[in-house]
Amino acid sequence: METVNNACLKFRRLLEDALDGNLSPEEYKSFIKHATFCPACHRKLRGEIMFRKLLQRALNQKQQELFHDKAQQLIISIKQRIYHQR
Ligand SMILES: [Zn+2]
Fold first, then answer.
1. 65 lies in a domain?
2. Structure pTM?
3. How many CB atoms sit inside 10 A of residue 36's CB?
4. Which of 14, 17, 31, 71 has fewest C-beta within 10 Å?
């Protein structure tokens, strides 16, 4: 079992909204920040994105594009942060 602290619990509560693009700029920032230094949540986020990619086959073309943009943006933000820390 992995240990989950309060920051992780908060991250997981925000996960759905983050993927839907519904976070405020402040929430989004702390969400990205947590994913940057918490490998467990980073994995969780990537797993969720993979899962949604499978689900999106049931969506129409327009919805697929919207989702792809948001998920892609999220991954890019995290990668940039990780890169800048090195
Ligand atoms: Zn975490």
1. yes
2. 0.65
3. 19
4. 17
Residue 27 lies in a domain: yes
Does residue 77 fall inside a structural domain? Answer: yes
Which residues, other chains included, contact 12 with Cβ-Cβ below 8 Å and sequence gap of 6+?
Answer: 4, 41, 44
Kindly report, residue by residue over 30-61, the tens digit of the pLDDT. Answer: 999 999 999 999 999 999 988 888 877 777 77
Q: What's the CA gap between 61 and 77, in Å, rounded?
A: 24
Specify the amino acid at residue 64: Q
Q: Is residue 1 part of a domain?
A: no
| Residue 48 alpha carbon to ligand 1 centre in Å | 14
> 29 C-alpha to center of ligand 1: Å?
14
Domain count for the chain: 1
- Helix axis angle for 61-85 and 6-20, nearest 10°, is 140
